[in-house]
Amino acid sequence: MVLAELGSRLKKALSSVSDEVILDEKAIKSMINDISVGLMESDVNVMLVGKMKKNIESQIDINNLPKGINKRNHVKQIVFEELCKLVDPGVKPYQMQKRREPNVVMFVGLQGSGKTTTCTKYAMYYARKGWRVALVCADTFRAGAFDQLKQNATKANIPFYGSYTESDPVKLAREGVKQFTDERFEIIIVDTSGRHKQEENLFEEMEQVSKAVNPNDVVFVMDSSIGQAAQDQAAAFKSRVSVGSVIVTKLDGHAKGGGALSAVAATSSPITFIGTGEQFDEFEEFDARGFVGRLLGMGHIPQLLKKAQEVMNIDKQKQTLENLKEGKYTVRDMREHFQMIMNMGPLTQLMSYIPGADKLMGKGAEQESSAQMKLIDDHHGLDER
Ligand code: GDP
Fold first, then answer.
1. For an engineered disulfide with 138, which of 60, 169, 227, 368 has Cβ 3.0 to 4.6 Å away?
2. Is the CB–ligand 1 distance for residue 194 below 6 Å?
């Protein structure tokens, strides 16, 4: 689970609401303080935290609650909603359209932010859902950029376009998009060059590529380790191209990711996905309510069901249910179930969708369980061959 430290701090603060014998003003104040300190330690901007604190205080009048209301749940609900507001800009991102013309999505961001890796993760995410997806490398600035995209795309089985010799990113982007449009691809992802810092050359090139391919969505990729500086960076990119969504990467490695997420939200940009590792499946849809729910250990059942539906073969499951009724459950059935669970993503991610599951599993237990499932799967695969 990303931002685990912040999560345990928030959970602890909220559980004090359940554990206090008498829930009075003093207990509420101390809970709000604990939450505020946790958020600031996760690098959330002091002003944003101050605003959230005021909002919570103004809604909780513990001595004058309407009769019949469960005080503890009421308090928790208010805190939950206010935490959601911190990471939810309330703006809807671009939705992929099924139509004759392709959905062209242009990726922008600084060098090293994880842009190329994220392009592949994004392509795989939609390819798994059945879309015909292709990748175009229009990064001619960084030596080896095309090789990296080619390697990633090959590994992920995604068609790609690029060149070792062409140095004009605008020409490459235009030609790549044209080729894949002619080939009737539904989603064409254009990876553009980055620079070490925000500079005029980068922005000019971005504008030209954008004019050439006329994207339906511009995705800004940002490294979470920059924390609160995310606000300036996101604003700078937004001022030059029409950024429609943001992907925040490397949330696995940073206790300060809360700062980046809330800073991006403060620029009214919707965060659509987060990167949670170097592997292509370490990539999660971002939904503010679900994210905060998981952070607080409340899980997110709708997301779990959605993931299950994506990998489940319904006809096969009906057959398995029939077999189970007759007391039949073979090793083959078990292997199929293990494979299905593994296809849903890393086990650590799955467990966080189940309310309270974090309390059931000890630290490191998830990795151990994943490894054991994989071992059983590999062994059985060998036996069958
Ligand atoms: P680009 O220069 O923006 O295209 O960045 P790359 O895609 O080359 O990524 C830079 C480094 O960040 C690579 O080593 C990636 O494996 C790594 N990376 C990308 N996304 C993530 C993430 O979500 N978590 C972690 N831990 N590493 C990531």
1. 169
2. yes
